[in-house]
Amino acid sequence: MKSDQRILLYFPLDIRMKESGIAGKCRGIIHAFQQNYKIDYISASDAGFYLNDQLLYDCYSNESVKLKYRFTERIIGYYTPLLPLLDEKKYDALYFRFHYFITPKLILFLKKLRRKNPDIQIFVEIPTYPYQSELYNWMALVRYYFGILLLPLFQKYVDRIVTVSKHKKIFGIPTINISNGYYSELFRKIDSIPEVQQQGFHIGMIANFNAWHGPDILIESIIQYYQKNDPKKEVFLHMIGEGEILEQCRNRVQERGLNNKVYFYHKINRPKILEVSKKIHVMVGTLGHHRKNIHLDSSLKSREYAVLGKPLILKTPDPDFPPTLPFVKYFPDDQSLLNVEEIILFYDQLKEKDPEYALKIHQYALSNLGWEVKLKPIFEQINTSH
């Protein structure tokens, strides 16, 4: 039964992008909140602000509005179009996805929410922490350190930071530690897990590739495997996604004459991903978290791999996939390459011990990795505060 409490959710991206993993995460969070509360959700992008998927404010309606938005958003933050909504409705909680910077307008937005309802619970999700390594230019660093000056006000209004890290406090604010989930609606058409019938051994990786995904580590691992005089099994690699780092990966594959072993799919839609995944035996998670000084994994893709019934190859520890699970294989969390022969052996042993492994991985995901499960600590906090 739904609570009468009304929750406002805010996401600083266009959640209508169906092929975006992050947008899918936001949709999953929205869906979980909808099962328990009355909600409104705001999606904010460069193009405008959307309330419950309806255009609320067009940031590009004319050139003067566009320039004003770009200037104010980068200097003091831009939440002005949302303020009339706060006059109309009273919210019992705010779930706010943070996007790097504390700004004066953000403080005013939180202040108005608190003034409307002094008992409101304000939760701020910080998707990656620490995140300073993701601030690539001087303007971003200036905005970050300017925001630090506003920390006392930020601390005044925020009740809890939501994080997938193990930190007990961030910015001096108590945390709620969760891990990522998967959005069930994206997989609702999956009613069976077909057995992989492909010849050879097929390894897959899906990402919007950056250095911290470590595609180069995976490519070099395949190169090392084929450098051996007599590989036991023909191995194929499927790289699904885009990213600048893939150019050097393609060059390495071409240099080594492995074009017929490594396939680059660019960006493909979800039905095509599901089709390609049918030929893949194991999926590889993020391999380069150590490059960002991140020591705890909660990657969205790993959860989706599990829903698809795929065994996982990981480096960084993930609380949802402890090494005791039979379908998870870990390698050292550093720059070292993967031992492909060990991966093949891991898969062969898994299949021999349990021919129904794929269905059991799928069932594990359904029982443990949905957003309704992951957000329970936040729901409990909201419910006990009213």
End-to-end C-alpha gap:
16 Å
Q: From N to C, what is the helix and strand string?
A: EHEEEHHEHEHHEEEEHEHEHEHEEHHHH
CATH architecture of the largest domain: 3-Layer(aba) Sandwich
Domains, number:
2
How would you write the strand order of the largest sheet?
A: 4-3-2-1-5-6-7-9-8
Number of helices: 14
Strand content: 15-25%
* Global morphology: globular
Poorly predicted ranges: none
**Which CATH first-tier class of the largest domain would you pick?**
Alpha Beta
Largest sheet: 9 strands, mixed
Tell me the Rg in angstroms.
Answer: 22 Å
Which structural class should the secondary elements be placed in? alpha/beta
Percent range of helical residues:
25-40%
Write down how many β-strands occur, each being a DSSP E stretch of 2 or more residues.
Answer: 15
What does this structure look like?
The chain is an alpha/beta fold and 386 residues long. The chain folds into 2 domains: 6-181 and 370-384, Rossmann fold (3-Layer(aba) Sandwich); 186-368, Rossmann fold (3-Layer(aba) Sandwich). Helices cover 37% and strands 17% of the residues. The protein has helices at 21-34, 63-75, 83-88, 104-116, 138-149, 151-157, 215-227, 245-255, 270-277, 300-307, 340-353, 357-368, 371-374, 376-384, and strands spanning 6-11, 38-44, 48-51, 54-58, 93-97, 121-125, 160-163, 169-170, 173-177, 201-206, 235-240, 262-264, 282-284, 312-314, 328-330. Helix 10 (300-307) links the parallel strand 13 (282-284) and strand 14 (312-314). The two termini are 16 Å apart.
